[in-house]
């Protein structure tokens, strides 16, 4: 057969660490996407209120900032493979266990402290995907990685059935134990199936005998130099706003629709299915047409879809009891937007960060993004305590800021799509 879908061609052509990363990713993404829709309502069921949830989110972002800052030095000092294994277990295996047995605010706070270490594995993963691999296929590779999480969406109604039968809290505890087992397998398998990249081997030798703190701040001058370039500075600002939006959306969307639109906890399990179907369509027919050298239209389309989803929820609020379809529209818009913006922004950041200092510069970039977005969790939580609709209004404002920043990002891209310094 002469024709093959671009994603299928990319999957067949993958080799080495890129192939391993894509193959084992479902062991993390499936359980993660299975429990994510219920995290906030699970916290409420345990006894937490909106401001406590917002505080946990902000503390998590603050801790992520610290680990993001150290992640480059840790990755270079100990190597991509070893760091991925150790911090993968610390950031997911332990938190999943803590979430499964949580009984109050302090349990969730302790879990988020451990979970914040995922920024180290995130840095490792970005290096593994880019180094010794085909950079021309980055958009499709990130799409394949995100694609694996769709499987959870198709089985999420099963979670709804169990929630209906056994109630929310016992079901969530079981899901977290399930997630702990699969995620542990994911990091162990990747360790044994992967190899240290050529850049990783060189950095281990160069960093031998140096402390993590010394290595961390030794790269500060390189980061400052790169940040002065419009292409990186503008991308960092845009990513900070998009991260703030995602933080608010993932934390308070489910609480908003359950409180305002009277969506039941069991019904929440249907929306991941809708989102997965939507994302599948976008991945199959839209994302393969996106080229990293032409980002203007995809960025604006993604932001526009997010705005439509939020506006629909706010406009329909007065008639909420008869307009459940608006919640579905919001979920479809957000899924479409995320499917477009996710692989695109990941690919853009991979390209604008210099390859020779990728790990350390990436750690500073991630830390700066988190520093700028850390307050949003507490702000949104406080707004939610005042009025359930305010976090959605905040997100609408963040979309407006993202749109303005995107206009400036376009000025750092020449007509052929190459990033200007």
Outline the structure in words.
With 421 residues, this protein is mostly helical. The protein has one domain (21-411): MFS general substrate transporter like domains (Growth Hormone, Chain: A), CATH 1.20.1250. Helix content is 79%, strand content 0%.
Quantity of strands, as a count? 0
Mean of residue pLDDT? 84
CATH class: Mainly Alpha
Q: Can you write the helix and strand succession as a string?
A: HHHHHHHHHHHHHHHHHHHHH
- Give the structural class: mainly alpha
Percentage of residues in DSSP E strands? under 5%
The CATH architecture classification is Up-down Bundle
Give the CA-CA distance, first to last residue. 43 Å
Question: What is the 3D form?
Answer: globular
**Count of structural domains:** 1
Largest sheet: none
Q: Unreliable stretches, pLDDT < 50, 5 or more residues? A: 414-421
CATH topology: Growth Hormone, Chain: A
User: What is the count of DSSP helices, taking H or I runs of 4+ residues?
Assistant: 21
Task: Tell me the layout of helices and strands.
Elements: H1 6-13, H2 16-24, H3 26-35, H4 39-46, H5 50-78, H6 80-100, H7 105-115, H8 118-130, H9 138-147, H10 150-166, H11 168-193, H12 198-207, H13 212-218, H14 220-227, H15 230-260, H16 270-285, H17 296-316, H18 324-352, H19 358-373, H20 375-386, H21 390-411
Helix pairs in contact: 1-9, 2-11, 3-10, 3-11, 5-6, 5-7, 5-8, 5-12, 5-13, 5-19, 5-20, 6-7, 6-8, 6-11, 8-19, 9-18, 10-11, 10-16, 14-19, 15-18, 15-19, 15-20, 15-21, 16-18, 17-18, 17-21
